[in-house]
Amino acid sequence: MTVTRGLEGVVATTSSISSIIDDTLTYVGFDIDDLADNASFEEVIYLLWHRTLPTGAQLEELKQQLASNMALPEEVLAHFKMYPIDTVHPMAALRTAVSLLGLYDEEADQMDEEANYRKAIRLQAKMPAIVTAFARIRKGLEPIAPREDLNFAANFLYMLTGKDPEPVAVEAMNKALVLHADHELNASTFTARVCVATLSDVYSGVTAAIGALKGPLHGGANEAVMKMLKEISTLENVEPYIRQKLDNKEKIMGFGHRVYRQGDPRAKHLREMSAKLTELTGEPHWYQMSTRIEEIVTGEKKLPPNVDFYSASVYHSLGIDHDLFTPIFAVSRVSGWLAHILEQYENNRLIRPRAEYNGPGKQDYVAVELRG
Ligand SMILES: CC(=O)SCCNC(=O)CCNC(=O)[C@H](O)C(C)(C)COP(=O)(O)OP(=O)(O)OC[C@H]1O[C@@H](n2cnc3c(N)ncnc32)[C@H](O)[C@@H]1OP(=O)(O)O
Ligand SMILES: O=C([O-])CC(=O)C(=O)O
What we know:
single chain, mainly alpha, Citrate Synthase, domain 1, CATH 1.10.230.10, three-stranded antiparallel β-sheet, 16 helices, 3 strands, 3% strand, binds acetyl coenzyme *A, binds oxaloacetate ion, Citrate synthase
């Protein structure tokens, strides 16, 4: 047996959703740069689920379906109020809430294509409501109902704060959602596909994927980047802090990637947004520290920043609590997970690799009373 640790380079499926070829990312053949500059997140959801951009009428229909499915069942809101809110991470709350939603969806175990599509709409729509409701309830605030007149990005910000969001904030949030929507067979998407390849249900697939995204080697890195920036705290402190980490062979969060070699094409969009938003909020030091970190890490280790690095200072500038950064990633990436789940069902085969055994050789059973 040949063991490929971390399945590096292993091609486990075909997919028509997104591709990474020579460090270029496309969704259904559309370059991520083109989509980041021009597309709404709702258009991207449609693209990932239907493999074509929507007509005006199709887009309106999807927007309406999303807006009208955003509200959460009372049972889920009541559940949040029972959590030990001082210790629960919002990603854990999100994971549990998605699993819980499945209990209140009468179609949860209905496996035909139409029912699965309806569940995809409901889950996509409810993710921002879950994240924002939990964020408010833990502060003793009431959740805010979504507004049908706002787009997806604006609704997220509105449900979080209760205020009409500034156009610049909506634009940034929309772009961040577009950039995070899908990424070929990353760890959380693979997790979702493994789960539903047993013919388990959509809620189980998304719950499993949230668990995988939570880790700091994957989506959890964006929160870890902000923690690092806060620890560094001044521009002068960047160099000694980063050099000490590198000397200790510690990883710098937000750098490196399993697939990209020259760089993550999404990072430059987030870098630009970080420059603009930190200037607008009067906190340009977050951007200045970030670019200095980038100079040192790319210089010393030849490791470029990934999508998580500049998203930290972008979300911070939007006034978002740092432990909500990874849940926001999930609010976007659920579009990709759902596309992959539906694609997996279309042409399913159980995913079951092998392990090379390296434990003890053959042993004889000894009764418990005779064991030393
Ligand atoms: C949305 C996303 O999931 S993007 C990724 C988000 N994760 C992070 O930002 C966490 C930091 N980065 C990492 O841990 C890694 O680069 C990963 C997990 C993204 C990719 O991991 P892998 O492909 O398994 O690479 P691996 O961890 O084996 O690293 C290869 C080498 O580069 C080094 N390296 C990789 N990333 C970093 C980093 N961020 N800082 C310092 N060194 C690093 C490793 O120490 C290793 O060095 P060695 O060969 O001398 O031992
Ligand atoms: O593809 C990966 O391994 C991680 C990543 O960048 C993503 O999921 O967006």
